[in-house]
Specification:
The complex is a heterodimer.
Chain A (H helix, E strand, L loop, with lengths): L1 E6 L4 E8 L2 E8 L4 H16 L8 E5 L5 H18 L3 E4 L1 H13 L3 E7 L4 E9 L5 E11 L11 E4 L2 H4 L1 H7 L4 E5 L6 H13 L27
Parallel strand pairs in A: 1-4, 4-5, 6-9, 9-10
Antiparallel strand pairs in A: 1-2, 2-3, 6-7, 7-8
Chain B lengths: L1 E6 L4 E8 L3 E9 L1 H5 L6 H22 L9 E7 L3 H18 L3 E5 H7 L12 E6 L4 E8 L2 E7 L5 H11 L7 H8 L24 H13 L4 H30 L3 E5 L6 H14 L2 E3 L10 H13 L23
Parallel strand pairs in B: 1-4, 4-5, 6-9, 9-10
Antiparallel strand pairs in B: 1-2, 2-3, 6-7, 7-8
Helix pairs in contact in B: 2-3, 4-10, 5-7, 5-8, 6-8, 7-8, 8-9
The structure holds adenosine-5'-triphosphate and magnesium ion.
């Protein structure tokens, strides 16, 4: 199984290659540079591995939530690349990717992943390690105020992501005494998108390039004429 | 050379395939106008969201209609600016990545270059050099065009674009958004002798324009009169006549000052019949030629981008595997071929 993965949903930009489970990655914190970095990143991974794009079985991508423009850059790139070789795409949640990274990096089983969504809100999700090496969402992903975030009623948790930078006190208080660690400087990464993408692809989550679509979570972006304030 | 062209600078998703030997092979447009009308204007975030849903299916369909396989495409062109950055990025990301995947050259095209070369898609295309009157929703300019990429702006609007003035006046007259075509429509029922609007900046030398005053004049006229169907039609006609007359006066000046007897009119407002009739008369008087795009290539479309991109790719223009969207991009800074 050969899978290419990219993520441009936050200020991080990354691409990864999974070849029969072995993952290589390019990763940079590079706000606003995704459009110049992402294709060269893929290029260098492919040439390092000595394979071509056409040999890929599928392409996974961070489908959001995250910065609208970043999410769309990733979706656009994945649509173009996947359509060029007529391969399926596997959408992966950026929050789930962060949780997956934390489980591997900090040996955690329960992760509360949050991205600062600006406008006083966070993109939020709770995840548990699943037996197949992936992650399982507990409840639904949401965009909400830090004081409205969903915290599962049992278990000990670790918190990751920029939401924990902006709202650490409110969020920690909501966990009661059940917060073990806190890692605000965690971003979605393509190596985790790749790992989750392989699992998702095996589970039949591959779709056509046209169906590579963003998940914004925040959808009330404009008011119609005549709508009340 | 066969080029896939992509336009997503504002609220239309356009895709076309142009072949330098065989001409335009397909040309598709998905307009978001109805969606934005509910908001009274273009909502940039919603425009971007819609492009990302519509573009790839449109590319598939354009290839099908052109009976073109991926092996037959030689390059990809996309609008790189000016326009709404989020909207531009969708076309740029998909277009550039598709070209990268196909191992084809790609080029980011200047949207206004697309507009002003659009008349070249017609039979008997105008020869260089020509004067271009670019009249769209965001721009009003007089440009001398010596060749592709050789543009000198000799006049432009100091405030509202003429299309914007049409739209604002139309809004005032309750004609919805974007109201340029609707305004033209009701103007046909107007009495041209009832109101006379000023011809801004025609009393002094120079080729610059100013259209924001016309909209204000329309508002004041509307408030000073009983609002009837007839009054609205009369205001529409008076506004249109003033805008058209102003454009014609400046075109005449440009022809006389430059000695260039070839005029090209492009951009959304070039669809306006009163403008075309007036400029046809002007051309006759000045012994000049005037060229327009077909109506559907006046407003945004993929064909003009495919065409401009084809010229640039044929000239050997290439881009690194990266893309860029520019909200602003001065026209006289594009590379000359
Ligand atoms: N028949 C018409 N009469 C007057 N105005 C018209 C007519 N048809 C279209 N327009 C105007 O043309 C404009 C749209 O043109 P176009 O699509 O070229 O502009 P744009 O793409 O929004 O702006 P730009 O190209 O400057 O970025 C609108 O302002 C619209 O009202
Ligand atoms: Mg335009």
């Amino acid at each position: 199984m050969k899978l290419l993965a990219i993520d441009t949903t936050t200020e991080a930009c990354s691409a990864a290659l999974s070849i029969n489970g072995a993952i290589s990655e390019r990763y940079e914190i590079a706000p606003r540079q995704h459009a110049t970095l992402i294709l060269p990143m893929i290029d260098s991974l492919l040439s390092e591995a000595g394979i071509t794009l056409a040999q890929m079985d599928a392409i996974a991508f961070g489908r959001g939530p995250g910065a609208f423009t970043g999410v769309r850059i990733g979706v656009g790139v994945v649509q173009g690349v996947a359509f060029s070789i007529e391969r399926p795409v596997v959408p992966v949640s950026s929050l789930a990717a962060m949780a997956h990274g934390a489980m591997a990096g900090f040996n955690a089983t329960n992760v509360l992943a949050g991205i600062d969504a600006r406008m006083g809100e966070v993109y939020w999700g709770a995840y548990q390690r699943s037996s197949d090496g992936g992650v399982r969402a507990v409840g639904e992903e949401s965009v909400c105020g830090a004081d409205e975030t969903f915290i599962p009623e049992t278990g000990r948790w670790i918190g990751v992501g920029t939401a924990w930078q902006s709202y650490s006190e409110v969020l920690a208080a909501r966990c009661g005494g059940r917060l073990d660690q806190l890692h605000p400087a965690i971003f979605p990464r393509a190596c985790d998108i790749a790992a989750l993408g392989v699992i998702g692809f095996a589970a039949g989550e591959g779709v056509s390039a046209d169906e590579a679509q963003p998940v914004y979570l925040r959808n009330n972006v404009a008011r119609k004429r005549g709508d009340s304030v | 050379m066969r080029v896939l062209g992509i336009e997503t600078s504002c609220d239309e998703t356009g895709v076309a395939i142009y072949d330098s030997e065989r001409g335009l092979l397909s040309d598709l447009l998905y307009s978001q106008v109805a969606m934005h009308a509910e908001y009274g204007g273009v909502v940039p975030e919603l425009a971007s969201r819609d492009h990302v849903r519509k573009l790839l299916p449109l590319i598939r369909e354009a290839m099908q209609q052109a009976d073109t396989t991926r092996e037959q495409i030689d390059g990809i062109a996309y609008t790189a600016g000016p326009g709404l950055v989020g909207a531009l990025l969708v076309g740029a990301a998909i277009g550039r990545s598709l070209a990268w995947g196909w191992n084809l050259p790609a080029v980011g095209v200047h949207h206004l270059e697309g507009h002003l070369l659009a008349p070249m898609l017609e039979e008997n295309p105008p020869p260089f050099p020509f004067i271009a009157l670019l009249v769209s929703g965001g721009h009003t300019m007089l440009i001398t065009v010596e060749g592709v990429g050789r543009y000198q702006i000799i006049g432009e609007s100091l405030d509202d674009a003429v299309g914007e003035a049409f739209d604002k006046t139309a809004k005032l007259l309750d004609l919805g958004y974007p109201g340029g075509p609707a305004l033209e429509q009701i103007a046909t029922k107007g009495d041209g002798t009832r109101f006379r609007f000023p011809r801004p900046m025609t009393g002094r030398p120079g080729l610059d324009f100013s259209f924001s005053g016309l909209k204000t004049f329309a508002m004041n006229t509307l408030h000073a009169n009983e609002i009837t169907e007839q009054t609205r039609a009369d205001i529409a006609l008076a506004f249109q006549t003033a805008a058209v007359e102003t454009l014609a006066i400046k075109c005449q000046r440009a022809i006389r000052e430059t000695g260039i007897k070839q005029l090209v009119v492009a951009g959304g407002v070039s669809a306006n019949r009163a403008l075309r009739e007036r400029l046809d008369r002007l051309a006759l008087k000045e012994r000049a030629q005037v060229a327009y795009p077909r109506l559907k290539f006046c407003t945004d479309n993929g064909a003009m981008i495919a065409y401009a991109g084809c010229l640039r790719l044929q000239a050997g223009e290439r881009e690194p595997p990266a893309f860029e969207a520019r909200a602003r991009w001065p026209m006289d800074t594009v590379t000359a071929l």
